[in-house]
């Protein structure tokens, strides 16, 4: 059986990726902080696609929780073919001199350290099998820094650099690494960034058609469906109306 592990699978890109891989017959390990929501996703996918879905509830920022949860997986579930490091977030928009340092910690701990904690646990399993594919979800913010995006942009630039480093270090083990950098996508992203302000979140997508979670999940799966000798290292995907993190035609 093929197995995909997807972090942050309770909504947005993560949930869409879980559905896309389940549709293709992958069994899943899905993680997130919201136990009830994870259970809902599990039940839906198992019923609709007749695959096995295991849920692990933890915060990727918590190193001990990551190691304990993933360490609880039985040997059969450790044969992970695809790891999608999706868990991530942006918090607020503020200039560097007025930034909330707690928000900074949350973004860096989730987007960078959380990705590292999960990867550090899973990679040895892939290394031992001499196969696997890691997909790191970045952002156009990794490529183009925009006003008041400072720390979020830095965290996604780190994902970009880490993806390149992983690709180099894992070459001897036949492990693929792909960074997928989405542009404007209408998920819970802006609602989280603006701390529940639905009106402000909605305004982000006015005047153009943004990406959906499904659009990004389709791209992620495509990257993972290529022949064994083909690896997409780095991919930027945006709405047609968006050129980069800064330029959007509305």
TrEMBL record:
* SUPFAM superfamilies recorded: NAD(P)-binding Rossmann-fold domains
Tell me yes or no: is Metal-binding among this UniProt entry's keywords: no
Keywords of this entry: Oxidoreductase
Top-level taxon: Bacteria
Molecular function per GO: oxidoreductase activity, acting on the CH-OH group of donors, NAD or NADP as acceptor
Transmembrane stretches, start-end: none
Q: Which InterPro entries match?
A: NAD(P)-bd_dom_sf (IPR036291), Sc_DH/Rdtase_CS (IPR020904), SDR_fam (IPR002347)
Record carries keyword Endoplasmic reticulum: no
Question: A Pfam family matched by this chain, by name?
Answer: adh_short
What PANTHER family does this protein's entry cite?
A: ALCOHOL DEHYDROGENASE (PTHR42901:SF1)
Q: Which family does it belong to?
A: Belongs to the short-chain dehydrogenases/reductases (SDR) family.
Q: What's the protein called, per UniProt?
A: NADP-dependent 3-hydroxy acid dehydrogenase YdfG
Q: Which organism is it from?
A: Chitinophaga niabensis
């Amino acid at each position: 059986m093929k197995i995909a592990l997807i972090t942050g699978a309770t909504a947005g890109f993560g949930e869409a990726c879980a559905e896309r891989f389940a549709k293709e017959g992958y069994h899943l390990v899905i993680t997130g902080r919201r136990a009830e929501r994870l259970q809902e996703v599990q039940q839906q996918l198992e019923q609709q696609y007749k695959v096995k879905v295991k849920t692990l509830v933890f915060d990727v920022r918590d190193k001990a929780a990551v190691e304990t949860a993933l360490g609880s997986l039985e040997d059969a579930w450790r044969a992970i073919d695809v790891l999608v490091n999706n868990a991530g977030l942006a918090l607020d928009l503020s200039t560097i001199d007025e930034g909330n340092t707690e928000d900074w910690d949350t973004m860096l701990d989730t987007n960078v350290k959380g990705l590292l904690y999960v990867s550090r646990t899973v990679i040895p399993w892939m290394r031992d099998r001499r196969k696997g594919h890691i997909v790191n979800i970045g952002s156009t913010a990794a490529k183009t820094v925009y006003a008041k995006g400072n720390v979020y942009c830095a965290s996604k630039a780190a994902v970009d650099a880490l993806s390149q480093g992983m690709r180099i270090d894992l070459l001897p083990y036949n492990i693929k690494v792909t960074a997928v950098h989405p542009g404007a996508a209408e998920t819970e992203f802006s609602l989280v960034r603006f701390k529940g302000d639905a009106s402000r979140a909605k305004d982000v997508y006015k005047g153009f058609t943004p990406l959906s979670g499904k659009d990004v999940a389709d791209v992620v799966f495509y990257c993972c469906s290529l022949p064994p000798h083909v690896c997409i290292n780095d991919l930027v995907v945006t709405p047609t109306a968006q050129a980069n993190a800064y330029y959007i035609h509305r």
